[in-house]
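Quick one: structure for this chain?
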Amino acid sequence: MKFLVIGCGSIGRRHMKNLLDLGHEVIGADLNTEYRKWVDDNLHISTVENAEAGLNGGGESGTPGKSGTPGKPDAVLVCTPPSTHVPLAITALKAGAHVFVEKPLSHTLDGVDDLIKLAKSKELCLAVGYNLRFNKALMKVKALLDSNSIGKVLYARILIGQYLPEWRPWQDYRKSYTASKKLGGGIILDASHEFDYARWLFGEMKEICCIADKVSSLEVETEDVAEVLLKSERGAIINIHLDFVRRDRTRHCEIIGENGTIKLDAISGKISLFSVGVSVGAGSANAVDAMNREMVFESAEDPNNMYVSELNNFIDCIKNKKNPLVDGAEGKRSLMLALKAKESSEKSKYIGLHKNSE
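Got it. Here's what it folds into:
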């Protein structure tokens, strides 16, 4: 298959490398000359200045490379700032290409429904890049919950924190989209993975409250810390903490149920399960009984694996006309939750969430 990757920044480069390793043809597009040069020099693929040229196959405006031949792409990956996602994705769909959009789907809901409807009418695949759904450790947590290992979930705490200047050390953080309101930055949208996997693990939410602000001395115009409180339709209370000010990187969650607790360190992949009087994994190497109530799973893996799995899911869905694990509708629901968090913070109030608001 032939892929056009729009956006040659860090995530675009990762996807390009992975697609090349998977044996596909790739061309890149970016307005930034330096980004295109990096791709030319390091990945040796054709690049073009804009999406339109790429959708036409690179043609005359392409830079010669070892990979990427003239011809329209089968699929497009949109890896640009969130404010540009919807128009670029719509352009790609109109050109007849399947589309993968990096998270979040957008920075507003404007045009999102039109995007989803267009993909459906053209019978083209539309996927959203919430790669944590392909994380081995988080998949194990999901399996433990689905097997009722800790009983009914009562509450959960989810936390992510990492110092923004260290996210992409090769780039001035002040020039990143994360630092810009106009481009759809801020910790709430940039860390919307946490909203997405909260929905995946605990179901849809019915109430939300958020306090968010810029509290550090970082030179950004967006919120850098957010504290979110949610109540799920199943009755669980969920706390999500997000920040890009913390100097010691962390990403973890604790899930407390009626019969036990699950703790996940998403960086190391370590999962701790404490379960009262419940046998888990009987007959296997991980078996425990009622007298040995705590066990640890080690699910560490190369972080790149989840990005490869994500792409393989997208490719499989294209080839076999299946629905992606995170399709446009799922991406919209997670975006809505993040936007409601921003709204709650701005209005200083609880907000009720209703299914008919979709």
